[in-house]
Design brief:
Structural class: alpha+beta
Radius of gyration: 24 Å
Shape: elongated
CATH architecture of the largest domain: 4-Layer Sandwich
Distance between the termini: 6 Å
Oligomer: single chain
Largest sheet: 7 strands, mixed
Length: 402
């Protein structure tokens, strides 16, 4: 049997930031912070967060308001790349949800209406594809399904039932999608959930990952760092509620595959956070001293005035198309890891501890383990093509055996 390491699959990465934000009746409330005021505050927030994908709730029922968000908030100062989902409002709600995306990174495919019982508000699934730098017609790439939802508010049994019905419809829609290893799902928005014991939450996490903590978070100071409503101690004339920060209503869920180190759309651990939240404003207004550390006064004031919700974000590393480089038969793959290819097989050894996996091109796992420092391991494999994955650096190498 002969072995040859054909080359390194060198994967470039692009990190994208997803933001979910309830805009508090944008364009429909002339009170404390009118639409012109909201434009100014939202520009400050977006400039600070720097997202690439934005799911929003509570936009007034007019396509002109989606255009206004593009023209007055996102595509300003020479920026021209932001696009929005088409306006839709099949239930004739007084508030709608929408998706905004950076068209340098994402291309539009379609949107699907997810039928929800009760006819409260539309829930749409927005299908996008990732614009890889060398993407050509007919080539494969990453596909994203972004589901933006605004579930029923209120703390009655009936309210919880309507949330559960909507969450069930979302789960069933995701399960109906045809298999595609290149697709990942993000489900986000204002879910008005009062705790992990709600059936709606359990429906969603039966298929998706919540990067935040599970528990009974409503009015619970142990979850203060994750509370997203309310930014105000007292209700204001824009219709937002008071009471200070004491509820976790806003979420970003995502496909379990995004937690795998080898995923082409990989959630970056620890990147989920509530913008403006420092855990020190439980049942207090966001603008009460001391202001949240790490945020300028301008950003805190913008968050306070813009909405009674705080935005949530999460980062994902997208791995783009690989290219192959030639490698010698004996060398260091990376500082601290070495290999030797000879007639007796493939030998790996490490100067530092290293985790590895060997798979064939069908995804079948042939070997995995832990390389002890300075302890060579020898592997025999049937003829064919294999992938060697180094966990610590997220790099793949292609191995031919014949």
């Amino acid at each position: 049997m002969r072995y040859a390491l054909l080359g390194a699959l060198v994967w470039a990465q692009d990190t994208i930031r997803v933001m979910a934000y309830n805009l508090l009746t944008y364009g429909a409330t002339p009170g404390y912070c009118d639409t012109r005021c909201k434009d100014q505050q939202l520009r400050t927030i977006v400039s600070f967060v720097r997202p690439h994908l934005i799911g929003v709730n509570e936009v007034g029922p007019s396509p002109a308001l989606l255009r206004r968000l593009l023209d007055s908030v996102l595509n300003i100062g020479g920026i021209t790349y932001w696009r929005s989902s088409p306006y839709a409002n099949s239930t004739n709600s007084n508030i709608v949800s929408a998706l905004f995306y950076d068209s340098r990174r994402f291309g539009w495919l379609r949107q699907d209406l997810i039928t929800t019982q009760g006819g409260l508000r539309d829930v749409y699934a927005y299908h996008l594809y990732y614009r890889e730098p060398d993407l050509t017609s007919g080539s494969d790439t990453l596909f994203l399904v972004a589901i933006v939802a605004h579930l029923k508010a209120g703390n009655t049994a009936g309210d919880a039932q309507l949330r559960a019905q909507a969450a069930t419809a979302i789960r069933q829609y995701i399960q109906s999608l045809p298999p595609n290893r290149q697709r990942f799902v993000i489900q986000m928005g204002d879910h008005n959930l009062y705790g992990a014991s709600e059936r709606a939450y359990m429906e969603l996490v039966s298929l998706l990952v919540d990067p935040g903590p599970a528990g009974e978070w409503s009015g619970n100071s142990a979850f203060a760092f994750y509370h997203t409503q309310s930014t105000r101690a007292q209700a204001l004339s824009d219709g937002g509620v008071g009471g200070g920060l004491n509820d976790r209503f806003d979420f970003i869920f995502f496909s379990p595959a995004c937690t795998m180190t080898s995923a082409r759309a990989r959630y970056l651990p620890g990147s989920f956070r509530v913008i403006g939240q420092d855990g020190q404003h439980f049942r207090r207004g966001l603008n009460e001293a001391p202001l949240p550390a790490g945020y300028s006064t301008a950003v805190v004031n913008a968050l306070y005035a813009m909405s009674d919700h705080l935005p949530v974000i999460a980062d994902f590393a997208l791995t783009v198309r690989p290219y192959t480089t030639s490698l010698p038969e004996e060398a260091a793959v990376t500082p601290g890891l070495h290999w030797r290819i000879a007639s007796e097989g493939l030998t790996l050894w490490a100067e530092r501890p290293c985790h590895f996996r060997l798979l064939d091109l069908t995804g079948r796992l042939w070997a995995q383990g832990y390389l002890e420092p300075h302890t060579p391991q020898l592997f025999y494999l049937p003829g064919g093509l294999y992938l060697l994955h180094l966990e610590e650096q997220g790099t793949w190498y292609r191995l031919a055996v014949w």
